[in-house]
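note to self — DONT lose this again. spent like an hour looking for the file last time. sequence + predicted structure for the chain T wanted, 107 res
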Amino acid sequence: MTGIVVLEGANAAGKTTLARHLVERYGARYLHSRPTRDPWRRHVAMLRRAVALSERHLVVLDRHWLSEQVYGRVFGSPAYDLGARCLDRVLRRYGALQSEPTILAAG
C-alpha cells in the first residue's frame, strides 16, 4: 500500500495512537512533527520526505501545518495563508488523505 495519510488534531487527540496502528497494520512509514520556531522550513522538508517515501510505502504524517496553526502566536511563526495552500496542493496532488482536526472525548 502506498500513499500519504495526514493526521491532524489537538494535543492528546489520539493522532499518535492511530499512527502507531497504521504502522503496525500496514507497515507505514511514520513522520512526526513538533512545533518549532521555523515551521515553514520543517513542513516543507517533511512533505518532501513524505512524497519520496510514498512512492513505495504508505506514509503517516502525525501532525502537519493545520494542527500547528494554533501554536503560531506562541512561536512567532508566520501565518499559514498562501504557504498552507501550497502545502495542501502538494498533498492533494499525491492523493493524501487528511483527517479533520478533532478532540476525542474521554468516555
